[in-house]
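pinned: reference chain
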Amino acid sequence: MLTKLHLEHILFLDIETVPELEHFKDLDDTKKELWEQKTKYQRKDEFTPEEFYDRGGIWAEFGKIICISVGYFKLVGETKNFRVTSFHGDEAKLLKDFKNLLNGHFSQAKNLLCAHNGKEFDFPYIARRMIIHGISLPYKLDLFGKKPWEVPHLDTMDLWKFGDYKHYTSLKLMARILGIPSPKEDIDGSMVRDVYYKEKDIDRIITYCELDVVTTAQVFLRLRNEALLEESEIKKVMVI
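pinned: its structure tokens
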């Protein structure tokens, strides 16, 4: 069935998130208590709430999105290009810009969103942060009343499960086993918080996020048993 999907109808995406504030001490007392309650199961007795706060970006209630990178295929005859761009800066603005992209270019019934572990992380995280900022959800993220087969989301990790709901495979592992050239990343997900708050180097984060979008698209091509993108076919663009 994957081979029946038109590549140009799919928007590939990835997000990078960090704790909403740099330090646990910057939270007000109520938020500190709520954080303690929210993370109690994950922390067990190994970490205090403050020690665990470096993972605050995982939860939409305590984190924020600092970058959304997107990519899409452009096919002209036998020529295949993959174009990548990113939204970053003020969270409310980047969410509005992303929404405008969806509404303007990927709002039709044929359009789908694709991310690695997107159903568990990227898609709900974006939707929750939009609601927090008072931004009405675009159709592609508003799942209320939709039947499972009507949800316009693809997830490369979900596709790899083949019905095995307990199975988790990282994007990096999938790329490795599927023979996808490993991108030259100088950071990983665990470093994003420090690169953002301490080094204040958003460009490094954007590059990392865009590489993940390209890798997700490459994984999708392999799942369709198609040739991978050549480096010359990947283009960074400023706007869609």
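why pinned: The mean pLDDT is 94. The chain is about 35% helix and 20% strand.
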